[in-house]
Amino acid sequence: MANLRSPMFMVLCAFQLLALLQSQVSCYTFKVGDLSSWGIPSETNPKIYSYWSKYHSVRIGDSLLFLYPPSQDSVIQVTPQNFDSCNLKDPILHMNNGNSLFNITEEGDFYFTSGEAGHCEKRQKLHIKVGNGTSSAYAPNSGPGGALADTAPSSPIAFGSIPVAPSTSSSSSSGMGARFAVILSAIVGSLVSGIVVIGSL
């Protein structure tokens, strides 16, 4: 049997660990609405969720952070039908602590709205689509024809950094490269560990 405390085995384990750590893991926490808290869009910025959803790419592993006064609002995840009709009954998920974090763990469409009566009708809702390399976020129609403006209003960062959406030129290839690096390092590490074990017999 192999000596698991041998210096050669320890060096190989350290090498495998370093190879795994070198693979890029990029998960972001996106604050929904960026500098604004989750709430009814203001008259000065009625399309905030439309702009936000148009200019952010969300992927598996990312999180959505909804900040709001818990005594005045909440966030619910709803079905597509309830999203379109602003039906707040029977939500999939109800979050009401004022600092709600939703983790993206699978591909698909995710529909969010305020849990407070009347807020959804005032455009406080968000549709996120994740998957197939075309991950994006969508907001409800925001005016005649549902067309969005070509540019979003910019604001200085008031607290901490807000994640920047990855560039579209290499977003899918960098994710594939990171997965490939992890798989390759696991295979190489396993093969080398097996050779060491067999060689020490």
TrEMBL record:
Keywords: Disulfide bond, Glycoprotein, GPI-anchor, Lipoprotein, Membrane, Signal, Transmembrane, Transmembrane helix. Pfam families: Cu_bind_like (PF02298). GO terms for cellular component: plasma membrane; side of membrane. It is found in: Cell membrane. Residues 1-27 form the signal peptide. The keyword Transmembrane applies. It is a lipid-anchor; GPI-anchor. The keyword Ligase does not apply. Residues 28-132 form the Phytocyanin domain. InterPro entries: Cupredoxin (IPR008972), Phytocyanin-like (IPR039391), Phytocyanin_dom (IPR003245). GO terms for molecular function: electron transfer activity. The chain crosses the membrane at residues 176-198. It comes from the Eukaryota. PANTHER family: BLUE COPPER PROTEIN, EARLY NODULIN-LIKE PROTEIN 8. Belongs to the early nodulin-like (ENODL) family. This is Phytocyanin domain-containing protein.
